[in-house]
Design goal:
Elements (H helix, E strand, L loop, with lengths): L1 E7 L2 E6 L12 H18 L4 H5 L3 E12 L9 E8 L6 E9 L4 E13 L4 E3 L3 H4 L26 E5 L13 H9 L7 E10 L8 E6 L10 E7 L4 E12 L2
Antiparallel strand pairs: 1-2, 2-4, 3-6, 3-9, 4-5, 5-6, 6-7, 8-10, 9-12, 10-11, 11-12
Helix pairs in contact: 1-4
């Protein structure tokens, strides 16, 4: 179920009830990332600059970085409201902020995505069209840090094979959907008692159908005040496709 509640042309709220939950009956960070991504796409469509609009100009959107922080996970059948808006960019990056609320108005989660526009033929980022940058010009304060932080990798640790890319993993660019990267990082730790409640992921390279995916990183053992670092690889485990920092806590 989705109900659009428009604050103004550049800030829209979506009321949603239907989403996935895990074995605890709560949604997960990847599920919230998917809600954020779909709300962003729908809002971009309403503003006439979604991926299909860019395709007509030989361009497309690519996600450079995503940062999501969860205060409280919604439970099954909870109504939630997603508020999203384009915010100030810098010429190369276009920002979008997100807030997730309960139906009672409690803030459950926040997110910040950093996007680039790619020339499809040249496979290179181009300057964000001015009409897109102007949409976020009036919103310069973000819900999370907007730094272009470089995330480290773990040296001396052999990447472990985790999966192979299938057709169901692909998006409209014929690349792996952004949320799949989040699922891989957060879904292979082997403990049902732990849940990722904050993640910053930096997208490095595309992954395509048939690619073998590998991962290495720090061991997830419980709630930690320091972020844990993980890296995703493709090919033979030698091509970095994404890097992340994450925080974990015990399931409620």
């Amino acid at each position: 179920m989705k109900e659009t509640i428009t604050d103004n042309k550049y800030c829209t709220r979506f009321k949603i009830r239907s989403y996935e939950v895990d074995e605890t009956g709560e949604t997960t960070l990847p599920n919230i990332c998917n809600l954020f991504q779909e709300s962003a796409g729908l809002h971009a469509y309403e503003l006439n600059f979604d991926i299909s609009d860019l395709f007509k100009k030989g361009l497309t959107w690519i996600l450079y970085q995503l940062h999501v922080k969860i205060e409280k996970f919604p439970k099954r059948w909870d109504d939630v409201i997603i508020k999203t808006w384009p915010s100030a960019g810098d010429g190369i990056r276009a920002f979008r902020d997100y807030e997730l609320f309960s139906d009672d108005g409690d803030l459950l989660a926040v997110g910040l995505s950093q996007w680039m526009v790619l020339d499809v033929k040249k496979k290179r980022p181009v300057k964000i069209p001015e009409e897109i940058l102007q949409l976020g010009a009036g919103s310069e304060i973000h819900v999370l840090d907007d730094s272009r932080e470089n995330i480290d990798t773990i040296s001396g640790q052999e990447p472990v094979y985790i999966t192979k890319v299938g057709r169901q993993d692909l998006d409209m660019n014929n690349h792996v959907n952004n949320v799949k990267y989040v699922e891989w990082i957060t879904g292979h730790h082997g403990s049902v008692s732990l849940k990722c409640n904050e993640l910053k992921i930096q997208y490095i390279s595309e992954a395509r159908f048939g690619d073998r995916i590998f991962m290495n990183g720090e061991q997830i053992t419980g709630q930690n005040s320091e972020p844990l670092v993980h890296t995703l690889y493709s090919g033979s485990g030698d091509k970095i496709i994404a890097k992340s920092k994450s925080f974990w806590r015990q399931n409620s």
